Amino acid sequence: MIKSILLIITGGIAAYKSLELIRKLKERNIDVTCVLTKSGSEFVTPLSVASLSGNHVFSELFNLTDENKMGHIELSRSTDLVLVAPATTNIISKMAYGSCDDLASTILMATNKPVMVVPAMNVRMWHNAATQRNIQTLIDDGIKFIGPNKGDMACGEYGLGRMSEPQEIINSIIEYDNSLIHQPLKNFSAFVTAGPTREKIDPVRFISNESSGKQGYAIAQSLFNMGAKTTLITGPTNIPLPEGPSIIKVNTAEEMLDACEQQLPADIAICSAAVSDYRVNNKKNSKIKKTGENISLDLSENPDILNRISKRNANRPSLVIGFAAETGEVEKNAKLKLYSKGCDWILANDVSDGKVFNQDINKITFITDSITEKWNEMSKDDVASKLSTNIINHFSA
Ligand code: CTP
């Protein structure tokens, strides 16, 4: 159980949110000790940080008084979690390269505790190839990231890079805590469909769609982290597989249905795949050659996996969750899908103008028989966490 946090505040305009974060953490009886970098102290004062945290604020590596109170090595080990919020491009780069030229970076090198990073930076700095490389390095090293969010920036630009809100950070910490310790879904089994499916036209051509699989992969990872015995059934994608869940790779809708049915009985089914609605009847065994004539594809409808799983008499999972990809009248169409397919929950999103496919963020309307809830725009990882929290609450109610 996380009872104490070492909060490293680096120099970004979003540092003001860290003050609210400290307050909220204290409300949950989490002890907060802060390290303020030199540039962090340009945005918030040591006095306000000390007053809110109720603890001494550490800033300098070679401060004899501080080192006497608590050495930097001791500081790096003194709490249950090290949280960097806001994390600038600079600290992320230093972490990725293992530099230690101040107290914050030295602690991050010396700590033996889990580290969570909450980036906050300009949209172009976020998308810069060097930043993305550094982030991937840190993810591979086991560092957890929270956010960033998309929106208006202090510099006047718009896009990804806004620091997550204090409550979102707390939710992620709780989820992480749950995943480490309580494993609230440890007695549950789940399967998740993700990615596109492919329907062959001939040996080199197929019908498919833009789905990246990111949302389904994030959900499978989150359920696994919560302790669920999780299987990810995925169409062809180009993204790294989640670590932990069992993986079944498929191509066609029929293969995906087959793989889902083999997972039964299961407690939770989540259909996030963008399944091709049609398959080709007149597919060819050899490459179709140009003839100068028009040709037609004869298509027949694929099985609807969500529908089939939801309407099973035997072995229906007790919670069946679908997605609704809509380009208009999102809520109305999603509700129709909820009822016609017979699933329990639908996560609806607006996929018009490339808003969701292949992106790292998602904006969900969460719909059940009795609730319609508009979620803020957030990362697909955060959508997965929020969904997992709802699942945990559902089963514990
Ligand atoms: N789905 C499925 N099998 C299919 C088609 C869709 O399991 N053959 C699931 C998707 O995984 C998603 C939900 O059904 O959870 C809704 O998918 P969506 O693409 O939004 O809608 P469709 O059912 O395909 O309907 P339409 O294309 O007419 O909107």
Provide tags for this entry:
397 residues; alpha/beta; Rossmann fold; eight-stranded mixed beta sheet; 24% strand; binds cytidine-5'-triphosphate
Written account of the structure:
- This protein has 397 residues and is an alpha/beta fold.
- It has helices at residues 15-27, 46-53, 64-69, 72-77, 89-97, 103-110, 123-127, 129-140, 166-182, 214-225, 253-262, 305-310, 330-341, 380-396, and strands spanning 4-9, 31-36, 57-58, 81-87, 115-119, 144-145, 149-152, 158-162, 189-194, 199-202, 205-207, 229-234, 246-249, 268-271, 278-280, 299-301, 319-326, 345-350, 361-362, 364-367, 372-374, 378-379.
- α10 crosses α14 (380-396).
- It binds cytidine-5'-triphosphate.
- Cytidine-5'-triphosphate (CTP) binds at residues 193, 253, 271-275, 277, 302, 304-306, 322-325, 337.
Q: SSE layout and pairings?
A:
Elements: E1 4-9, H1 15-27, E2 31-36, H2 46-53, E3 57-58, H3 64-69, H4 72-77, E4 81-87, H5 89-97, H6 103-110, E5 115-119, H7 123-127, H8 129-140, E6 144-145, E7 149-152, E8 158-162, H9 166-182, E9 189-194, E10 199-202, E11 205-207, H10 214-225, E12 229-234, E13 246-249, H11 253-262, E14 268-271, E15 278-280, E16 299-301, H12 305-310, E17 319-326, H13 330-341, E18 345-350, E19 361-362, E20 364-367, E21 372-374, E22 378-379, H14 380-396
Parallel strand pairs: 1-2, 1-4, 2-3, 4-5, 5-6, 9-12, 9-14, 12-13, 14-17, 17-18
Antiparallel strand pairs: 7-8, 10-11, 15-16, 18-20, 19-22, 20-21
Helix pairs in contact: 1-2, 1-9, 5-8, 9-14, 10-14
Bound molecules: cytidine-5'-triphosphate (CTP).
